[in-house]
Amino acid sequence: MWSFFARDPLRDFQFEFDKTQSLSCSIWRLHEGSKRGFTEESTVFVLAEESRVEDAKSNAKKLKLLRHPNILKYFDSAESEKCVYIATERVRPLQIFLESAGTGQKRDINLIWGIHQLLCGLSFLEKAGSGHGNVIASSVYVTRSGEWKLSGFEAKSGDDRRCFAELVKDIYRGKLPKLFAPIVSRLNSEASTLSDALDRLKAPGGFFDDERIRLLRDIEHLGKICLPPLSLCAFQTASKEDAQSILTKVQKLMDDFPTDLCRFKILPAMMNAHEYGTAGVTALTTIFKYAQLLEAKDYTSVVLPFVVRLFGSKDRATRLRLLQNMDQFAPHLTASAVNSEIFPNLVLGFQDTNPTIREHTLKALLALASKLNPNNLNVETLKHLARLQTRDEEGGIRTNTTICLGKMAQYLDVETRRKVLIPAFCRSLKDPFPPARSAGVLALSACQGYFYLAEVACRVLPALAPLTIDPEKAVRVEVFKALNGFVQKLEKVSNDPTLKEGMEVDVNAAVGKDASTSGWAGWAMSALSNNLVKHIGSRRKAKSETKSENVKAEEENPVSGNEEDGDGWEGIGEEELVNDTNSENIGQNWGWDNEWEKQPGETTSKTEVERDDFFAPIVAEKLPDANAKGDSWDSWEDTDDGTWKGINEAPVTRKTPRKPVSNSERQPRLGARLGAKKL
């Protein structure tokens, strides 16, 4: 009677799994599952033979009691009179793993590392005095990271030493490696224990004495300490020198390791090393390289949370390395994470005192433009770009700001494009830095589809005309190309007014749609798409030349910023920077090599193209000053805060200050007013 009211214990099992798909292995069916309310993946073992229910319960009890890195990790279990459920970490049977273990060197690494782990687990059981008793292929399971785990405690089939020897023969299909054959013979003759075999195989010249196996062993075992809830790996507890040595080997041997080992073992170890250990900022480049091996789903769950946390770091060297590698992980970022967590920290770089930080922040922003919300893109971003273009001391950064704005134009709101593009590009035409003027010309040409024909005639052409006598021949070449293209466009409409509507179709193009570029402007679009001017700083040239050796040394051991004072962005030294600021790169080129080819007979200096003697005296008088105010282009004059007038703000009106009046002048004026009152 009471059995009628008894609750089925299997219904309380906290793991869900797909009952329609399974793998058969020994007395079990394996199902992919996960814990209710959690995303962590697991494997659920379901008993397939009712007659073996007691053996299955014995296996569940053993897994629950034994905790070792090479024994299958137990999560939960449920038992009834006829069935047993066991939930463990996500694994697959050894037989299936061997079918997809690859070929050649990577397969050898998989097998050697797996046998090493299997022998470690059996040695542990041997020393504990319990043994396994069922060392066969169906008792071994492999995780996503390629680690072999022991299970199958449901039966006793023989001596562990002999069973292990036979299993190794089966794995190698009877063709044992030369270094392993003597060990197998000793195990079969019972002349050696499993622990002794492990020591012999790890000894110099032994089967496990391989550079890659030693590295994996170092990552897993060196200085391992278990501090709940965090298990520290070798990177975390090793000295800085040991951590750097391990990291160097990881970088060197990356191509030798199987993909699963790289993705799910080495990569997580390096991420923990950077966050909690002594690996330092140099680990980031390797982390991002290894992360490229992940599939989209794994990248989102494993790497993106790590990247978001890094953007909140106050260590300047870390943030600089993030900016340099933005193009690698930007495609995987979600719009919500970019706008709420990354963008507020990213824009701090625009106000940094170091040009390299500002330069890489600008380039990184370009990779995120398509994911920014309207406020961050059309308001916050443009304020920072306006400040860089009008007030930054570095010509290369002003140039890149114009290029960046031109490439971001397709993401701006229609009204914002109309207010910003022409004023911003025309301002760059007055920049004293030649590549900045050329960038303005290219940007106007590349974005010509966003301009009404009336704007081209009344605003663009008059702005370009003065540059036809620019002292730099490279600038003049670009200007004449642009003028010819714009004039031909106007001429076509003059001859056939019905073409006007088609030529202005992109003016109100939706956000995210790139303006169609006609053939004459293709050169400009190509230049904007493929080139960003390298950082050029004449003000810092002397410093860079004297510190180029320090730069190279600090690239290997970068110095972190101070986390206690300020926001962590003050005081970065020249020695912390990368090759962009090396004196050998300064002034070599403007990044426009495919467009600015050297003309016959033209000479170049280290900092800029030599001026044309014919135009130099004329332009010295007529070329507008980039900082001049009160000219006829009031609509794109900058305001006090560095923004372009008209960008979501009312124009600033300034009152003329009253001239101070001296005491000697004050008395006669007062007497005159009193006399007027009497009259």
Automatic annotation (TrEMBL):
Protein name, as recorded: Protein kinase domain-containing protein
HEAT repeat intervals: 342-380
Feature: compositional bias, Polar residues: 579-588
Compositional bias ranges of the Acidic residues kind: 562-578
InterPro entries: ARM-like, ARM-type_fold, CIK-Related_Protein, HEAT_type_2, Kinase-like_dom_sf
Entry-linked Gene3D superfamilies: Leucine-rich Repeat Variant, Phosphorylase Kinase, domain 1, Transferase(Phosphotransferase) domain 1
Region (Disordered): 539-679
Top-level lineage group: Eukaryota
Record field: compositional bias (Basic and acidic residues): 543-555, 595-614
